[in-house]
Design the sequence.
């Protein structure tokens, strides 16, 4: 059965390279996610509400974003069962955390997997993998 992704919070307009921290947590799940732009890079984090950061996925280096001067729309999406969380920028999924599989995927597969939480060595998010995760 295909999984649908729902807004975890209202979309927000931002400009890459301007400081931003965007969090999404739910009372019924120990997991949450955080997007952070520290004015130099954008990262998406998987977080356990008691244990802290579980994984980090590189989204962009600000200097490499060609249209960084144009405001963008960012959303955090969740599956209904809260097992998947995705980072959407301008209608494009840049990263996904699969909490059940203990896996994190992004378009540039960086950084390499590390830490005891991760069970999946593949980090590369492709459209085919996204379809598989969503059951399409």
Sequence:
């Amino acid at each position: 059965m295909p999984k649908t992704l729902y807004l975890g919070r209202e979309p927000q307009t931002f400009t890459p390279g301007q400081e931003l921290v965007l969090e999404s947590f739910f009372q019924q799940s120990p997991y949450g996610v955080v997007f952070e732009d520290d004015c130099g890079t954008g990262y998406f984090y998987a977080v356990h509400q008691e244990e802290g950061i579980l994984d980090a996925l590189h989204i962009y280096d600000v200097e490499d974003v060609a249209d960084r001067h144009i405001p963008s729309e960012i959303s955090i999406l969740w599956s209904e069962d809260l097992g998947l969380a995705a980072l959407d920028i301008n209608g494009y999924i840049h990263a996904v955390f699969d909490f059940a599989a203990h896996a994190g995927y992004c378009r540039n597969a960086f950084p390499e997997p590390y830490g005891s939480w991760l069970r999946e060595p593949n980090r590369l998010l492709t459209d085919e993998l996204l379809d598989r995760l969503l059951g399409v």
User: Anything to note?
Assistant: The first strand starts at residue 5 and ends at 7.
